[in-house]
Design goal:
- This protein has 345 residues and is α/β, with parallel strands linked by helices.
- It contains 14 helices and twelve strands.
- It has two domains: 154 residues, Rossmann fold; 177 residues, Glycogen Phosphorylase B (Rossmann fold, 3-Layer(aba) Sandwich).
Protein backbone atom coordinates (compact mmCIF):
# COMPACT_ATOMS: atom_id res chain seq x y z
CA UNK A 1 0.00 0.00 0.00
CA UNK A 2 1.39 3.44 -0.94
CA UNK A 3 2.03 5.66 2.10
CA UNK A 4 1.78 9.38 1.41
CA UNK A 5 4.07 11.81 3.25
CA UNK A 6 1.05 13.73 4.54
CA UNK A 7 -2.54 12.57 4.89
CA UNK A 8 -4.05 14.40 1.95
CA UNK A 9 -7.69 15.30 1.46
CA UNK A 10 -9.01 14.43 -2.00
CA UNK A 11 -12.10 16.23 -3.25
CA UNK A 12 -13.91 13.90 -5.67
CA UNK A 13 -16.70 15.47 -7.73
CA UNK A 14 -19.23 14.42 -10.33
CA UNK A 15 -22.44 16.03 -11.53
CA UNK A 16 -23.85 12.56 -12.10
CA UNK A 17 -24.69 12.46 -8.40
CA UNK A 18 -27.38 15.08 -9.12
CA UNK A 19 -28.72 13.51 -12.33
CA UNK A 20 -29.89 10.18 -13.74
CA UNK A 21 -27.37 7.71 -12.38
CA UNK A 22 -27.83 4.66 -14.61
CA UNK A 23 -24.69 5.32 -16.62
CA UNK A 24 -21.04 4.30 -16.61
CA UNK A 25 -19.63 7.69 -15.61
CA UNK A 26 -21.58 7.63 -12.36
CA UNK A 27 -20.51 4.06 -11.63
CA UNK A 28 -16.87 5.00 -12.21
CA UNK A 29 -17.26 7.98 -9.87
CA UNK A 30 -18.78 5.82 -7.12
CA UNK A 31 -16.08 3.18 -7.60
CA UNK A 32 -13.36 5.84 -7.33
CA UNK A 33 -14.78 7.18 -4.05
CA UNK A 34 -15.15 3.68 -2.61
CA UNK A 35 -11.62 2.78 -3.68
CA UNK A 36 -10.07 5.84 -2.05
CA UNK A 37 -12.03 5.25 1.17
CA UNK A 38 -10.86 1.64 1.37
CA UNK A 39 -7.91 2.62 3.61
CA UNK A 40 -7.39 5.52 6.01
CA UNK A 41 -4.24 6.96 4.39
CA UNK A 42 -6.27 9.70 2.64
CA UNK A 43 -9.32 11.74 3.54
CA UNK A 44 -12.09 11.98 0.95
CA UNK A 45 -14.77 14.63 0.53
CA UNK A 46 -17.44 14.31 -2.15
CA UNK A 47 -19.10 17.15 -4.08
CA UNK A 48 -20.49 19.64 -1.57
CA UNK A 49 -19.09 17.98 1.57
CA UNK A 50 -16.17 20.40 1.79
CA UNK A 51 -12.83 21.23 0.21
CA UNK A 52 -9.62 19.24 -0.15
CA UNK A 53 -5.99 19.55 -1.10
CA UNK A 54 -6.67 18.35 -4.65
CA UNK A 55 -9.73 17.94 -6.90
CA UNK A 56 -10.44 14.77 -8.85
CA UNK A 57 -13.39 15.23 -11.22
CA UNK A 58 -15.34 12.70 -13.29
CA UNK A 59 -17.92 14.90 -15.06
CA UNK A 60 -17.46 17.85 -17.37
CA UNK A 61 -20.30 20.33 -16.87
CA UNK A 62 -20.50 23.74 -15.16
CA UNK A 63 -20.01 22.14 -11.71
CA UNK A 64 -16.57 20.92 -12.78
CA UNK A 65 -15.45 24.41 -13.76
CA UNK A 66 -17.06 26.01 -10.69
CA UNK A 67 -15.49 23.64 -8.19
CA UNK A 68 -12.15 23.75 -9.98
CA UNK A 69 -11.71 27.49 -9.52
CA UNK A 70 -10.06 26.91 -6.11
CA UNK A 71 -7.75 24.16 -7.32
CA UNK A 72 -5.47 25.83 -9.86
CA UNK A 73 -2.51 23.52 -10.39
CA UNK A 74 -4.29 20.70 -8.52
CA UNK A 75 -7.04 19.60 -10.90
CA UNK A 76 -7.27 15.94 -11.94
CA UNK A 77 -9.89 14.88 -14.46
CA UNK A 78 -10.74 11.30 -15.45
CA UNK A 79 -11.76 11.27 -19.12
CA UNK A 80 -14.78 9.01 -19.63
CA UNK A 81 -16.26 10.81 -22.64
CA UNK A 82 -14.64 11.68 -25.97
CA UNK A 83 -16.14 13.43 -29.02
CA UNK A 84 -16.93 10.11 -30.72
CA UNK A 85 -19.22 9.28 -27.78
CA UNK A 86 -21.96 11.50 -29.24
CA UNK A 87 -22.14 9.48 -32.47
CA UNK A 88 -25.24 7.34 -32.25
CA UNK A 89 -26.13 8.93 -28.90
CA UNK A 90 -27.72 12.22 -29.94
CA UNK A 91 -29.62 13.20 -33.10
CA UNK A 92 -27.42 14.85 -35.73
CA UNK A 93 -24.31 13.77 -33.85
CA UNK A 94 -22.08 14.49 -36.86
CA UNK A 95 -23.29 18.10 -36.96
CA UNK A 96 -22.53 18.50 -33.27
CA UNK A 97 -19.02 17.06 -33.61
CA UNK A 98 -17.16 20.40 -34.11
CA UNK A 99 -18.75 21.79 -30.92
CA UNK A 100 -18.04 18.56 -29.02
CA UNK A 101 -14.38 18.69 -30.04
CA UNK A 102 -14.08 22.36 -29.05
CA UNK A 103 -15.84 21.92 -25.72
CA UNK A 104 -14.04 18.74 -24.66
CA UNK A 105 -10.67 20.23 -25.60
CA UNK A 106 -11.52 23.03 -23.18
CA UNK A 107 -12.60 20.51 -20.52
CA UNK A 108 -9.37 18.53 -20.83
CA UNK A 109 -7.19 21.64 -20.87
CA UNK A 110 -8.81 22.95 -17.67
CA UNK A 111 -7.31 19.98 -15.83
CA UNK A 112 -3.66 19.93 -14.83
CA UNK A 113 -3.64 16.16 -15.32
CA UNK A 114 -6.08 14.10 -17.39
CA UNK A 115 -6.41 10.43 -16.53
CA UNK A 116 -6.91 8.43 -19.72
CA UNK A 117 -8.78 5.23 -18.85
CA UNK A 118 -7.65 3.50 -22.05
CA UNK A 119 -5.19 3.90 -24.94
CA UNK A 120 -8.07 5.13 -27.14
CA UNK A 121 -8.80 7.95 -24.71
CA UNK A 122 -5.14 8.94 -24.50
CA UNK A 123 -4.87 9.17 -28.30
CA UNK A 124 -8.03 11.28 -28.45
CA UNK A 125 -6.75 13.80 -25.88
CA UNK A 126 -3.50 14.13 -27.82
CA UNK A 127 -5.29 14.45 -31.16
CA UNK A 128 -7.34 17.33 -29.76
CA UNK A 129 -4.13 19.13 -28.74
CA UNK A 130 -5.44 19.68 -25.22
CA UNK A 131 -3.00 21.57 -22.99
CA UNK A 132 -2.77 19.05 -20.20
CA UNK A 133 -0.58 16.26 -18.92
CA UNK A 134 -1.91 12.76 -19.64
CA UNK A 135 -1.55 9.72 -17.36
CA UNK A 136 -3.10 6.37 -18.23
CA UNK A 137 -4.86 4.64 -15.31
CA UNK A 138 -7.67 2.13 -15.76
CA UNK A 139 -11.07 2.36 -14.09
CA UNK A 140 -11.25 0.23 -10.93
CA UNK A 141 -13.65 -2.73 -10.89
CA UNK A 142 -15.17 -3.71 -7.54
CA UNK A 143 -15.12 -7.46 -8.10
CA UNK A 144 -16.56 -8.23 -4.65
CA UNK A 145 -19.61 -6.06 -5.30
CA UNK A 146 -20.56 -8.11 -8.36
CA UNK A 147 -19.33 -11.53 -7.30
CA UNK A 148 -21.35 -14.59 -8.27
CA UNK A 149 -23.75 -16.08 -5.74
CA UNK A 150 -26.86 -18.25 -5.77
CA UNK A 151 -28.65 -15.74 -3.53
CA UNK A 152 -28.06 -12.90 -5.97
CA UNK A 153 -29.11 -15.08 -8.88
CA UNK A 154 -32.40 -15.95 -7.16
CA UNK A 155 -33.03 -12.31 -6.24
CA UNK A 156 -32.29 -11.12 -9.76
CA UNK A 157 -34.58 -13.68 -11.35
CA UNK A 158 -37.38 -12.70 -8.97
CA UNK A 159 -36.89 -9.02 -9.80
CA UNK A 160 -36.95 -9.73 -13.54
CA UNK A 161 -39.77 -12.31 -13.27
CA UNK A 162 -37.66 -15.03 -14.90
CA UNK A 163 -38.09 -18.77 -14.56
CA UNK A 164 -35.28 -20.77 -12.99
CA UNK A 165 -34.68 -22.91 -16.07
CA UNK A 166 -34.48 -20.10 -18.66
CA UNK A 167 -31.19 -19.35 -20.44
CA UNK A 168 -31.01 -15.57 -20.02
CA UNK A 169 -29.06 -13.29 -22.36
CA UNK A 170 -28.45 -9.84 -20.88
CA UNK A 171 -27.72 -6.47 -22.45
CA UNK A 172 -26.89 -3.37 -20.38
CA UNK A 173 -26.65 0.22 -21.56
CA UNK A 174 -28.50 3.25 -22.76
CA UNK A 175 -31.27 2.76 -25.32
CA UNK A 176 -29.45 4.26 -28.28
CA UNK A 177 -27.88 3.20 -31.55
CA UNK A 178 -24.30 3.53 -30.24
CA UNK A 179 -24.90 0.84 -27.63
CA UNK A 180 -26.16 -1.66 -30.22
CA UNK A 181 -29.63 -2.16 -28.77
CA UNK A 182 -31.14 -2.70 -32.24
CA UNK A 183 -28.57 -5.40 -32.94
CA UNK A 184 -29.52 -6.98 -29.62
CA UNK A 185 -33.12 -7.12 -30.85
CA UNK A 186 -31.99 -8.72 -34.11
CA UNK A 187 -30.11 -11.40 -32.16
CA UNK A 188 -33.15 -12.00 -29.96
CA UNK A 189 -35.37 -12.42 -33.02
CA UNK A 190 -33.02 -15.15 -34.29
CA UNK A 191 -33.06 -16.97 -30.92
CA UNK A 192 -36.74 -17.23 -29.90
CA UNK A 193 -36.05 -20.12 -27.51
CA UNK A 194 -33.85 -17.96 -25.26
CA UNK A 195 -34.82 -15.10 -22.93
CA UNK A 196 -33.38 -11.65 -23.64
CA UNK A 197 -33.30 -8.79 -21.11
CA UNK A 198 -31.96 -5.28 -21.69
CA UNK A 199 -31.34 -3.13 -18.60
CA UNK A 200 -31.00 0.58 -19.29
CA UNK A 201 -32.78 3.77 -20.17
CA UNK A 202 -32.31 7.18 -21.74
CA UNK A 203 -30.54 9.86 -19.67
CA UNK A 204 -31.16 12.35 -22.51
CA UNK A 205 -34.86 11.52 -22.73
CA UNK A 206 -36.62 12.24 -26.04
CA UNK A 207 -33.51 13.85 -27.56
CA UNK A 208 -31.74 10.48 -27.56
CA UNK A 209 -30.89 9.27 -31.06
CA UNK A 210 -33.54 6.94 -32.50
CA UNK A 211 -36.09 7.57 -29.73
CA UNK A 212 -39.19 6.69 -31.79
CA UNK A 213 -37.49 4.11 -33.99
CA UNK A 214 -36.14 2.08 -31.09
CA UNK A 215 -39.41 2.39 -29.17
CA UNK A 216 -41.21 0.83 -32.12
CA UNK A 217 -38.68 -2.00 -32.28
CA UNK A 218 -39.18 -2.64 -28.56
CA UNK A 219 -42.97 -2.58 -28.93
CA UNK A 220 -42.90 -5.26 -31.63
CA UNK A 221 -40.25 -7.47 -30.00
CA UNK A 222 -41.31 -10.98 -29.03
CA UNK A 223 -42.53 -11.97 -25.60
CA UNK A 224 -39.13 -13.50 -24.86
CA UNK A 225 -37.58 -9.99 -24.87
CA UNK A 226 -38.04 -7.58 -21.96
CA UNK A 227 -36.86 -4.04 -21.20
CA UNK A 228 -37.26 -3.50 -17.44
CA UNK A 229 -35.62 -0.05 -17.45
CA UNK A 230 -32.88 1.47 -15.30
CA UNK A 231 -31.69 -0.13 -12.08
CA UNK A 232 -29.85 1.45 -9.18
CA UNK A 233 -26.17 0.55 -8.95
CA UNK A 234 -26.86 -1.46 -5.79
CA UNK A 235 -29.36 -3.62 -7.69
CA UNK A 236 -27.07 -4.42 -10.62
CA UNK A 237 -25.15 -7.32 -8.99
CA UNK A 238 -28.41 -9.28 -8.77
CA UNK A 239 -29.34 -8.34 -12.35
CA UNK A 240 -26.00 -9.60 -13.69
CA UNK A 241 -26.23 -12.75 -11.59
CA UNK A 242 -29.70 -13.47 -12.98
CA UNK A 243 -28.22 -13.89 -16.47
CA UNK A 244 -26.21 -16.64 -18.16
CA UNK A 245 -24.53 -14.52 -20.83
CA UNK A 246 -23.83 -10.84 -21.51
CA UNK A 247 -23.86 -9.41 -25.02
CA UNK A 248 -22.01 -6.12 -25.45
CA UNK A 249 -22.75 -5.01 -29.02
CA UNK A 250 -21.69 -1.36 -28.48
CA UNK A 251 -20.18 0.39 -31.48
CA UNK A 252 -17.99 2.81 -29.49
CA UNK A 253 -16.54 2.74 -25.99
CA UNK A 254 -13.80 4.51 -24.07
CA UNK A 255 -13.42 1.67 -21.57
CA UNK A 256 -16.64 -0.25 -21.00
CA UNK A 257 -17.44 -0.98 -17.35
CA UNK A 258 -20.44 -3.18 -18.10
CA UNK A 259 -18.62 -6.21 -19.54
CA UNK A 260 -16.14 -6.24 -16.66
CA UNK A 261 -18.93 -5.98 -14.10
CA UNK A 262 -20.61 -8.90 -15.86
CA UNK A 263 -17.33 -10.82 -15.86
CA UNK A 264 -17.03 -10.21 -12.10
CA UNK A 265 -20.50 -11.75 -11.80
CA UNK A 266 -19.26 -14.92 -13.46
CA UNK A 267 -20.77 -14.30 -16.90
CA UNK A 268 -19.17 -15.03 -20.25
CA UNK A 269 -19.14 -11.89 -22.40
CA UNK A 270 -19.37 -11.49 -26.16
CA UNK A 271 -18.01 -8.15 -27.38
CA UNK A 272 -18.38 -6.41 -30.70
CA UNK A 273 -15.05 -6.58 -32.52
CA UNK A 274 -13.94 -2.93 -32.36
CA UNK A 275 -10.38 -1.53 -32.11
CA UNK A 276 -10.78 -0.05 -28.61
CA UNK A 277 -10.54 -3.45 -26.93
CA UNK A 278 -7.49 -4.60 -28.86
CA UNK A 279 -5.39 -1.90 -27.18
CA UNK A 280 -7.06 -2.20 -23.79
CA UNK A 281 -7.10 -5.89 -22.92
CA UNK A 282 -4.04 -7.99 -22.16
CA UNK A 283 -5.96 -11.29 -22.34
CA UNK A 284 -8.16 -12.91 -25.04
CA UNK A 285 -11.88 -12.17 -25.16
CA UNK A 286 -14.82 -13.39 -27.23
CA UNK A 287 -15.77 -11.05 -30.07
CA UNK A 288 -18.27 -10.89 -32.91
CA UNK A 289 -17.71 -9.02 -36.16
CA UNK A 290 -21.39 -8.71 -37.02
CA UNK A 291 -24.90 -9.76 -36.04
CA UNK A 292 -24.52 -13.20 -37.59
CA UNK A 293 -21.45 -13.82 -35.42
CA UNK A 294 -23.36 -12.69 -32.33
CA UNK A 295 -26.19 -15.09 -33.18
CA UNK A 296 -23.89 -18.04 -33.76
CA UNK A 297 -21.90 -17.45 -30.56
CA UNK A 298 -25.06 -16.90 -28.50
CA UNK A 299 -26.62 -20.15 -29.73
CA UNK A 300 -23.41 -22.04 -29.02
CA UNK A 301 -23.26 -20.61 -25.49
CA UNK A 302 -26.80 -21.82 -24.84
CA UNK A 303 -26.21 -25.35 -26.13
CA UNK A 304 -22.53 -26.15 -25.46
CA UNK A 305 -21.67 -26.33 -21.72
CA UNK A 306 -17.93 -26.62 -22.46
CA UNK A 307 -18.01 -23.41 -24.54
CA UNK A 308 -20.00 -21.67 -21.81
CA UNK A 309 -17.36 -22.63 -19.24
CA UNK A 310 -14.62 -21.43 -21.58
CA UNK A 311 -16.35 -18.06 -21.75
CA UNK A 312 -16.52 -17.87 -17.98
CA UNK A 313 -12.82 -18.70 -17.74
CA UNK A 314 -11.96 -15.95 -20.22
CA UNK A 315 -13.95 -13.49 -18.10
CA UNK A 316 -11.97 -14.44 -14.99
CA UNK A 317 -8.70 -13.88 -16.86
CA UNK A 318 -9.80 -10.45 -18.11
CA UNK A 319 -10.37 -9.26 -14.54
CA UNK A 320 -6.80 -9.95 -13.45
CA UNK A 321 -5.66 -6.87 -15.38
CA UNK A 322 -7.79 -4.53 -13.26
CA UNK A 323 -6.51 -5.08 -9.74
CA UNK A 324 -8.04 -2.45 -7.46
CA UNK A 325 -5.10 -2.11 -5.10
CA UNK A 326 -2.69 -1.51 -7.97
CA UNK A 327 -4.99 1.15 -9.43
CA UNK A 328 -5.32 2.77 -6.00
CA UNK A 329 -1.53 2.96 -5.65
CA UNK A 330 -1.32 4.62 -9.06
CA UNK A 331 -3.90 7.23 -8.04
CA UNK A 332 -2.21 8.00 -4.73
CA UNK A 333 1.19 8.30 -6.39
CA UNK A 334 -0.27 10.75 -8.91
CA UNK A 335 -1.93 12.83 -6.19
CA UNK A 336 1.28 13.00 -4.17
CA UNK A 337 3.35 13.95 -7.21
CA UNK A 338 0.97 16.83 -7.99
CA UNK A 339 1.00 18.09 -4.40
CA UNK A 340 4.79 17.86 -4.17
CA UNK A 341 5.18 19.80 -7.40
CA UNK A 342 2.97 22.54 -5.96
CA UNK A 343 5.21 22.79 -2.90
CA UNK A 344 8.35 23.01 -5.06
CA UNK A 345 6.68 25.54 -7.33
Amino acid sequence: MTVMKKRRCIHVISETAFAIQGQGVHTAFVDCVDLLKRHDDVEVVVNGEGWGDLMHAHSYGPYYFWKGRRYRGRRVFTVHVIPDSIKGSLPMGSLLMPFARWYLRHVYSYADVCIAISPTVERTIRDLNAKTRIVQIHNPIDVKRFSQSSERRAAGRRALKLSNDAFVVLGVGQLQKRKGVEDFLDIAKACPDLVFVWAGGRPFGMVTEGFRRINERIRTAGEHVTFPGVFELGDMPAIYNAADLLLFPSYQETFGLVPLEAAASGLPVIYRDIPEYLDLYEHPYLKARNTDDFIALTKRMATDPAFLNKGRSMSRNLLTQFDNERIRKQLLALYEEIMESQVRG
